[in-house]
Model the fold of this input.
Amino acid sequence: MARNWEEYIIEKILLLAAISSVIIILLIIGFVVAQGLPAIQFTGFINFIFGMNWNPEYNLYGVFPMIVGSLGIMALALLFAVPLSILGAMFLAEVAPRAMRRILRPTIQTLAGIPSVIYGFFGLIVLVPFMRVHFGGSGFSMLTASIILTVMVLPTILTISEDALKSIPLEYKEASLALGATHWQTIKNVIFPAAIPGVITAIILGMGRAIGETMAVIMVAGNVPVIPGSILEPVRALTSNIALEMGYAVGIHYNALFATGIVLLGLIIFLLVIANYINYKRRVTIGGGYL
Amino acid sequence: MGEDIYEYSADIGKRYFYGGLTLNRIISPKYAQKIMNVVFWGVGILAVAILVIVIGYILYHGLPQINLTFLFTSPINDGRSGGIFPMIISTFYITIVALVVAAPLGVMAAIFLAEYSGENNFVKSIRFATETLASVPSIVFGLFGLAFFVVFLQIGFSVLSGGLTLAMMAIPTILRTSEVAIETVPQSYKEGSMALGSSKWQTIYRVVIPAAIPGIMTGILLGMARAVEETAAILYTVGASFSVPVSLFDSATPLSLHLYNLAVEGISLPNAYGTAAVLVIIILIITVTTNYMVERYTKKMMGR
Done:
């Protein structure tokens, strides 16, 4: 009898631990929204999202330039990172010999583990002067930020794409090779198409990482809250906006920074829902023969 | 010969003949294979090169700055000279606070998800929450830490506020890695234990967890790495102090934050290099240990 009670209590304690992540995420959303709402009410939702001016001195809070900044840096980073990571994933999953894999896997892991502030520091010291000399301008730009971000999202996209490529049934590959296709033809026409849903999930998670990155972007992007005219001009991301101004924000300005956080959270949750939907679709299509 | 046909297909007439077909009719499959091999190796080598350049650059400039004085004295004049002793202590202190909270929660949640629950909507919502938690931007964690721990719970800018904020970030990492580790414990282990008459918890406690320990430790190490490297989440929760934090309620400046201040405010480049190198070395130690454990673990599992 005592044993049963013990089992029951332990199960309930474990259950409590398991729902802690639900509680935490609800607390995060609750607190950030509660602190951010006054600012959105103050400026009006449309004016807040689509307002072109961010000037706390005059109580102007429009985050549109930062939304453009975040999405622009992300898009540019993905433009470089997606082809690189997909090729890298194909290399790791299909082509690379054992010895190379033993070097490359830890390399990718270490790249993923390097602190963002180190990437930012490296960008500030090495990449910004390089860009200043070779592309003109101040060197602090959307392009610089996206190059640093490319390296940071590469491990995310590569690892998940590799898993997707490796989960393709071996028969597909064997059938293609047996028909006389070269290895590259097999990868391009059989393995990759079958893995596309997983690769898309990988790209979406990479997007999330790119939008959420703060320190590396802040250190190289220049942080001017204006829509840039070219990729060589400085931009400010949503994340940087919060980190830069939280130190001295009071009153409605403080709330406006939390409201920026709401926009960020909204973007991230939107991306996650899409990723989950694609995952769900994949489960259906592979059984029914995706090819 | 088959190859010749493909080579001739490069001429205009053939291209017209194959009009609308894909590029692989113009470039022979054999050449395409060769080109792609070069591209693949290029990408692989590029990844290794990036790592070597970034880490090499930091260590090359940073290692000469590191000596006993640098490691064991306090910063002088906002970090223009002096060392980083309080920052090293702060980093470890905050990481330990984070792990003391996150490790039990993450591991217990993993046990529940792996052993006590089926695949129902309730579990799905827990999974979605964990996934969301894993992708919340770190600066939003920082905002939350500021609003909840610092202001609402009135803990103030302190080691405790920063540590708890980092704990929330580390939970998903620890949870997912531990869950995989627990799930891969062979069913026969559990059946053996159950057959001997032990209860479910006894089985988990005495059989499943010991077998999954290397995997769980890996999860905790990964959570630790996440806590050490994080900057944005602690920017507005730990405060800023150049003295060694003693109590949980003291404010502190961890290494990552110190590096950010030194670099962005242009306070001292040599000290920034030194701090960066110390940070990189700590992360490298954690990564290498994790890799070593994973390797040993998989070998043990395969060898069975």
